[in-house]
Amino acid sequence: MAEYKNNTIPGLIGIFLLTYGLFFPSLSAEWVSFIIDRLQESMNIMDSGQLLIASFAYISRNGFLYFLIYFSTLLIVSALAKNTNSTAFSLCYIAATITAVFFINQFHGESSSYAPHFLSLGLLLALNTYITGQRYYYLTFAVILFFLITAMQCLNLIPVLSKWSFGADDLAVSLKTADSFITEDQLFTALYFVLFAIFFLIAVIFALLVHLFNMQITTLKRFQVQEKELKETRFALTESKVYEEIHSLVHDLKTPLVSVRGLISLIEMKYEKSEDKKLKDYLTRVDHSIEKMNEMISEILYENTKKEIHIDEFLRYVISHLALDDQKIRLEMEVQENLPCIHVNKIRFARAIANLLENAIISFEGKAGFIQIDVKQVNDTIRFQIRDNGPGIKEELMQEIWKEGFSTKDSSGIGLSFVKRVVENHHGSIFVSSTPGSHTQMDIYLPVSSGQGGAHDDIDYR
Fold it and tell me: Is the pTM higher than 0.70?
């Protein structure tokens, strides 16, 4: 729909300008009368100044007329053709423009010569190859067209070019005749050759400058894309290496734990017949602690390791890992009664919730703030809502915050991408809403554990 509108508007403008251009010779009768009056006066008093005024008026009038024709046909043809640098576009543009010029000549008797128009179109299309695809293509084309059309109208008044069909219309012939009579062709030949060179060079230089500027912009954008890809690759490698090292270290912890557990078993066997109940109690508690550590290591190593956990217990575990002592933060927590358990990887999901809370705390930058945690059941999901009254997130960054490596605090940028990955690994979804200067709210929806009567496998809650 957007492309349709983009093509339609230039096309409609082109039709309007073309219609106006076709009627312009009739509408500019006073303009022509002015030229004829100045021409007659110059002949009467042999005044080259009046002749120059008449010639400038002629160039202005014809320049405006053919600017309308050339530009309107460009708008119409470009609305029909997708590629303004194709051969089909060039042929259609030449055909449309020459047809428009033909009707003007037939109905208004402007000029019967088409050679200057073919030359103009050839030069114009040659310069068009340097500007096609530009962001401000129509504006750039209009500027080049203005200088080129003006240059070509100067050629119409150079007497020596008359034999090549330049300046074959009645006004141009009359002006050149007067110049021959007053200055013996000296004035128009010198003046309009210089003006032609100036306007033509301006058109060429402008097209080249726009082309070079566009190349610089394209190169800059390419470098920015490459830099971004390099940064993402470097980040991925770093994260992969760090994760691998952590994984290896955590895995290595299992070996001494197995040894400790074996030693505990030997001690239990040795003192099996002992009457020391306190010693047996200590050994049992040590064994339970080792078992718990084993479970935690498994959850760290294997993200699909999950278990049932009460939400109150889970939230206490999360809060215990937050450093709130030196903060001016007021943390409120509201949990709906009788909520079912959640089936999560406790370590990873707790880290995800902690990341959101830590981001909220950091956003206050040491100032007083308010964070609210609200947990309740919504249909067949458990919703974790974390809302703070911090500075909020700018609208243009709302889609960027989930990308790996993105950060506004010179941090690693792992936080929110990790949160999203963990939530999705639990078949959940996460949403963010924020108003700069007011608040930020994160909503995480987790499926109710299947053990509590709610299905969650392979369900997309997003």
Answer: no
